[in-house]
Amino acid sequence: MAVTTPLSPEASNKSANVKAKAPTRSLATRLYRERYGFLLLLPGLVFFIWFRYVPMLGNIIAFEDYSPFRGFLHSDWVGFKHFARIFEDAEVIRVIGNTLWLSLLQIAFAFPIPIVLALMLNEVRNQRLKRLIQSVVYLPHFLSWVVVIGIVTIFLKTEGIVNKGLSLAFGMDSIQFLQEPGWFMPLIVLEVIWKEAGWGTIIFLAALAGVNPTLYEAAIVDGASRWRQIWHITLPAIRGTIIILLILRLGSVLDSGFTQIFLMLNPFTMDVGNVLDTFVYFKGIQQSDFSFGTAVGLFKGVVGLVLIVGVNRFAKKFGEEGVF
Amino acid sequence: MPIKRTLADRITDGINLFLLLLLSLVMLFPFYYITAVSFSSYEEFVNTDFLLFPKAWVLDAYRFIFDSKEFIRSIGVTVYITVVGSIVSLLLTSTMAFALIRKLWGQRFYLFLVLFTFIFGAGMIPTYLIVKATGLIDSYWSLIIPDAISAFNLIVMRQFFLSIPEELHEAAVIDGANDLQIYTRIILPLSKPALAAFGLFYAVGQWNTYFTAILYLNDPSKWTVQVILRQIVILDDTTNTLASAAREAARSAHLPPPETIGMAAIILATIPILIVYPFLQKHFAKGVMLGSVKG
Questions:
Q1: What is the DSSP string of A201-234?
Q2: Which one of A169, A260, B60, B197 is CB 3.0 to 4.6 Å from B283, fit for a cystine?
């Protein structure tokens, strides 16, 4: 037969040649073989590049005196001029202060509520009742901010049900909740709690569902009370989740939720309620100060990025898992 | 073996349940109150201090809204962007999620591109300028395309696709199927519940569209229902035509006052959500758990 033996010098030489050529040829064949996969990938990839990454590059207009007519390639470079403006402008300083103050309030009041709520729900023995309560507390999450603030507006108007109630019960004069600067931040936090507290329990309940029930049985045998069980079994079970969410929250201390704040702001509360997100909109879009608005937005984004990476590293140092 | 419950346990449980039920009432009361008042008559609304149970249920406020072209048109716009937007989002998300489970050349890089957007966003103004440069300003596509894929939904959907046994793909490949055919013939039919859940979630997002509408649509005749709702309920001033017209009309002809019209508008803008809510709640709570516990 004419079959060459595998060890014939000619044949082995040939296969070595094929191997040497392999990388380039196999990449081409591989790409060809995967062409339909790439066809499916392409629209999504184009979306991410065009609407998420090109705008990231577009941030360079923060270093220009951007003129829409000349485009970002032909506008004048001004270096860090707009970033310097951030720290010279008393209004921006106040806005940064408002942003940090709001974040502090959110972390102190809105952050722990879903944890407490999840612990409470976890103690409900009647499964049907538990599911019913969950359905009710999840609901506000799906409403728009316009609806939520619309409801708040109706309730808190001068002639609204809250003021009527206060005057009937305590004979109080009506309070201008929506115009009073002192009420702005508390209302924002309360709205966030009403809308998102229930939804926020999902992730903690998921963590709690993974707890091994024998741990509780063992604790009961050891004579642990309900509170002891919560302290020594339930809480440690969700510790990792709490820390991850706290890291994410700390990484976004400069994000305030544009829509909610924007809808709540009015001329009376502008001084105490204007935050970085709304400031960027008013300056950049409404007053067309594109470069300054972008500089403020970029400052916000970079500080957030540094914070999240930093806090994550810090958490890891203390033996926690971290986000990445 | 049932564990013996002490009296203290039962009291704790009782208090806990009581507090949770109280909380549920706090969550539901606004809906009840707004529904009740939206059906009340002008006289009753003006003359009752603490209107909780309207004696006469009337439809004046709803009739007024259905007569106003502005609100009805905004509902039409919103239905349109909700339907088209959800389909586009679902198509883009599912194709990309599927591509990301096939071990394509450079897969880790594409995944990184998606995940990085979780920790760094481009910012409002550069995004606005890109949308403008794309020529989408004042087009309904500006409400659909720039937010078509939610990176979070994409990752959760990919996680779901990964749970479909790989042997099915392999069998299909042996039968001569390409990736396109695996996607349409195997993945999509097996993912109907997941697709329904994500579709609903995208739909709720589109229905609630507010911010992108004020950002990208200058033409008031194109505004979505949330923007009109803000005009009616939150601003409620003379610059907004519907509310001031309502006030005028109410004064002269004892028509519904702007307050009840606002409440009726809130109800109408919320009804679609309430209708799909049972489906949403069931599927999506699970989806969120799936996605989040992994991370």
A1: HHHHHHHHHTS-HHHHHHHHHTT--HHHHIIIII
A2: B197
Q: Do B125 and A258 touch (CB under 8 A)?
A: no
Collect all residues of chain A within an 8 Å Cβ-Cβ radius of residue B266: 147, 150-151, 154
- Answer yes or no: do B293 and A203 touch at CB < 8 A: yes
pLDDT recorded at residue B193:
84
**ipTM score of complex:** 0.89
| pLDDT at position B232 | 86
Residue ranges of the domains in chain A?
A: 32-77, 91-150+182-318
User: In percent, how much of chain B has pLDDT > 70?
Assistant: 86
Burial (CB count <10 Å: 0-12, 13-18, 19+), residue A294: buried
Where do we find the tokens 């201090």? B49
Per-residue b or e along B9-36, where b marks 16 or more CB atoms closer than 10 Å to that residue's CB: eeebbeebbeebeebbeebeebbebbee
Residue A77: helix, strand or coil by DSSP? strand
- For domain A91-150+182-318, give the CATH number: 1.10.3720.10
Other CB atoms within 10 Å distance of the CB of residue A302: 13
B10-61 pLDDT, tens digit each: 888 899 999 999 999 999 999 999 999 888 887 777 777 677 787 778 888 8
In one-letter notation, the amino acid at residue A22 is: A
Among B96, B120, B233, beta carbon nearest to A301 = B120
Contact A301 B259 (CB under 8 A): no
Contacts of B105 in chain A (CB under 8 A): 27, 30-31, 34
- Residue A247's pLDDT is 86
Please, which residues have CB within 8 angstroms of residue A107's CB and are 6 or more apart in sequence? A246, A249, A250, A253
Between chains, do B92 and A38 touch, taking CB under 8 Å as contact? no
How far apart CA A179 and CA A266 sit, in angstroms, is 7
| List of domains in chain B | 69-292 (1.10.3720.10)
Tell whether A34 is within 8 A of chain B (Cβ).
yes
Q: Does A51 touch chain B (CB under 8 A)?
A: yes
CB of A28 within 8 Å of any CB in chain B? Answer: no
pLDDT single digits (tens) A237-295: 899 889 888 888 888 889 888 999 999 999 999 999 999 999 999 999 999 999 999 99
